[in-house]
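Feature request, filed as a ticket because there's no other form

It would be nice if the structure record came with a short human-readable summary line next to the tokens. Right now we just get the raw output. Example of a typical job, pasted below so the devs can see what we mean:
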Amino acid sequence: MYRFLLTPRWWGINVFVLLAIPFCVFMGSWQLGRFEDRVQDHRTADKAASTAETDPARPLAEMLPVTTETSGRQATAKGRYGKQLLVPGRELDGRRGYYVLTLLRVDGGKALPVVRGWLPGDADPAKAPAAPGGEVTVTGALQASESPGSNGVSTAGGLPPGQTAAISSASLVNLVPYAPYDAWITLAEADAGMKAVPPTAPQNTGLDLKAFQNLGYTGEWFVFAGFVVFMWFRLLRREVEFARDAELGLLPDPPAGQQGNDDATTAVTPSATA
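Raw output as currently delivered:
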């Protein structure tokens, strides 16, 4: 009764099932791992944020490169302020405004982007306070370079001279005459006339919609695996019932039109032979 399993058709079905089930289980496990990584990163970021306010500031060189553990921690650097830029389209306390970003030239010739504060309204160089002169020591929360489209970062281009959409080394390298760090800090206490910009959580560490999408994809892949098994058993059952009916002679008669064609063929064949 089960000899049909040796036919080429069922060989193809069985090979597909044997490949599809492990693939679905692997993809489901991978998506679950992605979600668990996001949960762990979220816990690490929360722990770092809770300790950032009490931990003493550490030299910038000891905090680089920026990781989920060092992001948000207090860092300190010494140098002289250089070129100043504005970062438009940034919201704070529900109001739209812009960051005042000044490059701090430190020892070695590199520059550290420093967000000295936030101002409301459209970006206006005339309203942005000038940076202090001489050698200064700054202390603020360390942040990783921004990516367009994340954490409110604009993806628009064509900004006026003296403005940048994202605070990142890739964007600043074309705007300043010195090499910027692949990191930036936001001052714990903004300069006079501006509001301090609070640090943000590292990218891809929050339990946002994307994180729960990974969990949803996990369920989908395991459902696909179960559906493959269900369909295999359903096809097997139908084939077994068909084989049993054929052995008992219980197969339905062909349609009337088909039966007439068969009779005509039978009637014509002897005369043709004769």
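Something like this underneath would help us a lot:
The CA atoms of residues 116 and 191 lie 6 Å apart.
The longest helix spans residues 8-52.
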